């Protein structure tokens, strides 16, 4: 599902990623951990095509993303990759279901199709009765679930999450963590999660440890089926 080969990335004189290679299989839930400044978010952004590496190659869902034009890369990102961030980033003027539908509209889907998919996701997450509520009428946990549903609306192959439970209390953290696995089991997505949360890292299928722009243990970088 994701194959990264010898990725490097620098910002000025600061080398953030130093030859990262890793493989993630379809349906895996993988965490990326490490101290602040290790390069975790930069790696996630490069996998998600939000940033480009200085060198190396990335294949996501069978596509060499480095070969895509700017327009095709934007289309690929919207239909193949979903993003969940620490803060929900919902648009305050839209309801929960409208926020979820926005990526589907960008992908050119019909309103009826987008609404049907958004309704399915809200129902799965136990938020069917919150569909017409705006973000200021939702709890923190509800907002983050809506953000996850938005990431899933185009049925992407990969979900990338950057500290997704960092702003939640312990109860909502546990519920969100379990949700990732429930979604994987129902919809088959691959999850790559940057986290400082030891409890989340402990329950993922595999943990990749990053330090100073490098993977500490090379064995972390390969799925068991690929070793």
TrEMBL record:
SUPFAM superfamilies: P-loop containing nucleoside triphosphate hydrolases. One of its GO terms (cellular component) is plasma membrane. One of its GO terms (biological process) is protein localization to outer membrane. It holds the Pfam family ABC_tran. GO terms for molecular function: ATP binding; ATP hydrolysis activity; transmembrane transporter activity. Residues 2-227 form the ABC transporter domain. Keywords: ATP-binding, Cell membrane, Lipoprotein, Membrane, Nucleotide-binding, Translocase, Transport. This is Lipoprotein-releasing system ATP-binding protein LolD. It comes from Prevotella lacticifex.
């Amino acid at each position: 599902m994701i194959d990264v080969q010898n990725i490097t990335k620098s910002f000025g004189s600061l080398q953030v990623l130093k030859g990262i290679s890793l493989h993630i299989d379809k349906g895996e839930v993988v965490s990326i951990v490490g101290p602040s400044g290790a390069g975790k978010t930069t790696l996630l952004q490069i996998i998600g095509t939000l940033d480009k590496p200085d060198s190396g190659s990335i294949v996501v869902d069978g596509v060499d993303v480095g070969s895509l034009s700017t327009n095709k890369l934007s289309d690929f990102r919207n239909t193949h990759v979903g993003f969940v961030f620490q803060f929900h980033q919902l648009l305050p003027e839209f309801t929960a279901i409208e926020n979820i539908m926005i990526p589907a509209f960008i992908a050119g889907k019909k309103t009826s199709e987008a609404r049907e998919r958004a309704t399915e996701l809200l129902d799965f997450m136990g938020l069917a009765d919150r569909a017409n509520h705006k973000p200021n009428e939702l709890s923190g946990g509800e907002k983050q679930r809506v953000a996850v549903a938005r990431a899933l609306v185009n049925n992407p192959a990969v979900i990338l999450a950057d500290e997704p439970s960092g702003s939640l209390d312990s109860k909502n953290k546990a519920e969100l963590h379990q949700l990732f696995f429930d979604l994987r089991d129902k919809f088959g997505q691959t999850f790559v999660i940057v986290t400082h949360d030891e409890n989340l890292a402990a329950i993922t299928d595999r943990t990749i440890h990053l330090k100073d722009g490098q993977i500490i243990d090379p064995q972390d970088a390969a799925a068991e089926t690929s070793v």
